[in-house]
Structures are given as structure tokens and as C-alpha cells.
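Cont'd.
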Amino acid sequence: MSVLTVIQEFLERLFPRSGGSRQDVKRRLQLVLAHDRADLTPEMLEKMRQEIVEVISRYVEFDAEGMEFSLEMDERVTALIANVPIRRVRNEVL
Amino acid sequence: MGRIVVITSGKGGVGKTTTTANLGMALTRLGRTVALMDADFGLRNLDLLLGLENRVVYTALEVLAGDCRLEQALVRDKRQPGLALLPAAQNRNKDAITPEQMQQLANLLAEKFDYVLIDCPAGIESGFKNAIAPAQEALLVTTPEIAAVRDADRVVGLLEAHGIRKISLIVNRIRPQMVQANNMMSVSDVQEILAIPLAGLVPDDERVIISTNRGEPLVLEANLSLPGIAFQNIARRLEGEKVPLLDLDAPYNTLMGRLRRFFSR
């Protein structure tokens, strides 16, 4: 082991990097708990997404690629987050 | 009337029974009288952790059947006269008792003791329902692991649905070095996710296993170890005292500590 790697390891021990599994477990838990708490089946969630898309697309043209649709939680409250990038508002409602 | 508290977790093996045994002892050290109820019918362990397994004669079932008086079934602890155990039956299953019967027994105990601590079995089926039926408040034990936290979250929902609003969290088996290396959730990570008040934290410690082997809860020691202090602090918080959280990082944060660990690899 070279002196450099020893110093590098020493510094890493002094200042642990944030690359550990702690962030992973938190992220996975937040997601799984949001679903557990909402008690929505994936099918219901997908159906809801489709119906929301239907309604929105009657009023605006949007970027389907950039659309986000997910359950998130804060404290003990679960929220449905829909992020819909709008391209253009329709002149007439379809 | 005494306070009826259920110690529960959802997932098995996270430290419910260890917590029940130690909190019971810790509360008697504070001058309270405590009855411990083992609700784990068919898989009873609380008698073992207390070192009282050789003194069990009757169980809750004999009391309910009228074969003995409640007083006869209670195993009094000789080391802590304020502590008594109402054992579960070992040769029966969870359906040997109903939620109403649990309630009846817990209420009888609450007339005589300051605290009734109920050691809940793992799972969320009938054993769990029996254990939470008499409870006015709950202590939720979890460890900083994904499965334990998920199960704990489910249990919070079930407790709330059952009308138990006073729920506080105990995070067990914290390994401060792993938290520092960002490889384990911290107490505040877990608390943030579950969003219930914190009753305390307990470090992962070999001495917990040793005390289990001997049937001598940690809080019995004259000079309390770190996990012993942790349980004693939780008992004090139950009593309404404001006790600062144990700083588990303290022994690791000094430069010399870091250097020593680095060179002792």
C-alpha cells in the first residue's frame, strides 16, 4: 500500500463520503411506505394516471415523456405528485 | 389505575421482549410497581429473559379458567419486589385467549400495579390483536433496517385504527460507526420516516446477549452499561422526565479515537 492510498483512506475515514447505503435505504423506504400507506394497487394507480392524462389532454398539449406521476410521503401524509410539463394550451377544449 | 402499555413491533427479533424485561426492571428501580404480561401464547420468552422460567407454575389461562387466583399465577421477582410476571401458556396457541380476556386480565393488573407492560408477539394476526386490545398506549420497537421500519409503519396504522393515539418509538440496535460511515439509518432518519415521537434509542451491544444468556436484565447491574443506561433513560421518559438522548457518537468523535480505530484495523 502506497503512502498516498494510506492518506486517502485516512481522509475518507475522517470525512466519510455520502456514497454509503444509507441514502439508498431511506429512498427505498420512502417509496415503499408511500405505497403501503396509500393502499393503492399498481393497477388502480395506472388507471388513475390514464384518466388524469385524458382530462389534462383535453385542455393542454403536454410532454408525455417528461411527465412524472408518483406517490410521495411527508410526515404521515401521502401525496400524489403529478408533474406535467405543458407545451401549449389548447385554444378550444376537446 | 395503572398505565397499560403494549410493546410491539410487527417484525420479529427486533427486541420487544428484551425491551419489556428491561423497562419493567427499570421502572421498578424508579420506585414503581410493574406487572409484565407475556402475550406470546405458544412462544413465550419473557420468563427466560427475566430469569424466572423455573418459577412459573400457573399461566394466564389457569387464571381465566378459574383454576387459580391471579395472585397465584403472578411470579414475583426476588431481585425487584415491585415486579411481577403473568406468564403466557407455552403448550397452547394464540387462539387460546380472546381480546376481551386479555382486557379483563390487564384491567385486574392495572388495579394493583402502576404499570402493566404487555409483551406483544410478532406479526399482526390474532396474537397482536390480543396484545393491543387492553392497551392505552404503545411503545413501538424497531431497528434501523428496511424490513423492520416498514413493518413498524404498518403497525402504527393498525394501532391508530384501534384508537391507540399515544405511540412512541424505540430505535434498537444502533451501530454508531455504521451510521457515521453512512451505511445505516440514524435514529433521526428512522424517526423522520415513521413520524412518531421518540421514546429512546438503544445501541447494538454484546452485553445485551450476555444478559439474555444469564437471565439478568441489564438494568439490574450496579454500574449500568451503555445499553443499560439507554433502557433506564426510556423508563425515566415514560415517567415524564426530560432526559437528553444518549450520544452514541461521543466515544468515536475524538481525534484520538479515530486515529486509534484507524491504526487498530
